[in-house]
Structure to design on (365 residues):
């Protein structure tokens, strides 16, 4: 059994619980930093894809996981960030300016959209955001002079302090670019949750009536949450466009929005770790299924058979299993296992039973 004994207030507000937890995070950071030296180009690309999905998951996690506002339209903000970044690059704006500006512009647009949309609750808000995602598809086609329409656009190599970074030509440098962005976004997210604004998000998620009674401006807090969420998602969209190399209006379909929401639910709704766990599932599931089909074909003595919709079918089955048996997702299961080891032999079987009733708040209305 391990007990953390706090002796000053700094220990209570710092991002890590103790030195042991900090050392684990530093080891993890060292491993992912050294990944390009022991991975080939294919798996390095998959790691890059996972990090991009994690950034997008962090964006949606702010809105859905920590503010309690359901959204099925974040693919629209991925598209906004992607196209804004490429249009600025084509206009001659340096990448170090175009990239953050794409996120800022997406966040501002998200805040403007949030003013009428966030008057809705629950399923109605989800439907409204889904309609917005469908509408953006048509807007991309209608604004063909800027977006390329159905033909799409191509992402050029970016210049970062004199170094040309390209997803295909320099995969290692592009991986480090995505890694740096993901670390910065994660650290910003951690500090946001420790700030009064982040605590307002959580209070709003648990009970809007109670949050309003404590003096929280509900409309303003929702709008800020939507803006931050859209801004981070826009950064992920800019990186996703550079990673894909070529994209059009069909790249950011409403299916991406649904997949993004399912990702954070499976990973663990309401936790930063959950965005990364869910991104690992989304990133590596297609490759795992491809390898599994080859193994089955080799064992059966024939070629592997392509099954349409297999990936989304497996993904949906995983989601159903977690909703039925572990609503807290992968991180929730890991948290329970870790707690068992930390409190052994004093762990009680029903320690987490209260959370089932706690989740039945007005956030589900």
């Amino acid at each position: 059994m391990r007990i953390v004994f706090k002796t000053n207030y700094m220990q209570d507000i710092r991002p890590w619980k103790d030195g042991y937890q900090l050392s684990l995070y530093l080891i993890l950071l060292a491993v992912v930093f050294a990944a390009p030296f022991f991975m080939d180009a294919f798996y390095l690309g998959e790691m890059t894809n996972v990090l991009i999905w994690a950034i997008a998951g962090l964006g949606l996690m702010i809105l859905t996981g920590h503010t309690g506002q359901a959204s099925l339209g974040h693919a629209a903000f991925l598209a906004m960030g992607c196209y804004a970044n490429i249009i600025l690059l084509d206009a001659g704006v340096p990448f170090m300016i175009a990239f953050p500006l794409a996120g800022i512009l997406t966040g501002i647009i998200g805040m403007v959209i949030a003013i009428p949309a966030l008057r809705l609750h629950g399923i109605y808000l989800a439907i409204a955001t889904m309609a917005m995602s469908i509408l953006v598809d048509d807007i991309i086609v209608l604004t063909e002079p800027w977006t390329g329409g159905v033909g799409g656009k191509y992402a050029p190599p970016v210049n970062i302090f004199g170094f040309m970074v390209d997803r295909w030509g320099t995969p290692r440098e592009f991986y480090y670019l995505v890694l740096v962005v993901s670390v910065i976004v994660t650290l910003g997210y951690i500090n946001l949750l420790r700030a009064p604004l982040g605590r307002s998000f959580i209070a709003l998620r648990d009970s809007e009536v109670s949050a309003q009674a404590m003096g929280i401006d509900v409309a303003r807090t929702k709008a800020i949450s939507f803006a931050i969420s859209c801004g981070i998602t826009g950064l992920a969209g800019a990186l996703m466009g550079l990673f894909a190399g070529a994209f059009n209006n069909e790249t950011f379909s409403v299916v991406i929005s649904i997949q993004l929401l399912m990702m954070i639910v499976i990973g663990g709704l309401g936790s930063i770790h959950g965005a990364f766990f869910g991104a690992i599932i989304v990133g590596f599931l297609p490759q795992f299924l491809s390898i599994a089909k080859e193994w089955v074909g080799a064992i059966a003595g024939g070629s592997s058979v392509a099954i349409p919709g297999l990936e989304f079918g497996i993904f949906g089955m995983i989601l159903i299993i977690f909703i039925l048996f572990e609503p807290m997702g992968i991180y929730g299961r890991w948290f329970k296992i870790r707690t068992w080891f930390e409190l052994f032999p004093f762990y009680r079987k029903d320690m987490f039973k209260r959370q089932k009733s706690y989740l039945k708040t007005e956030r589900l209305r």
Observations:
- The first helix runs from residue 9 to 13.
- Residues 3 and 342 are 8 Å apart (CA to CA).
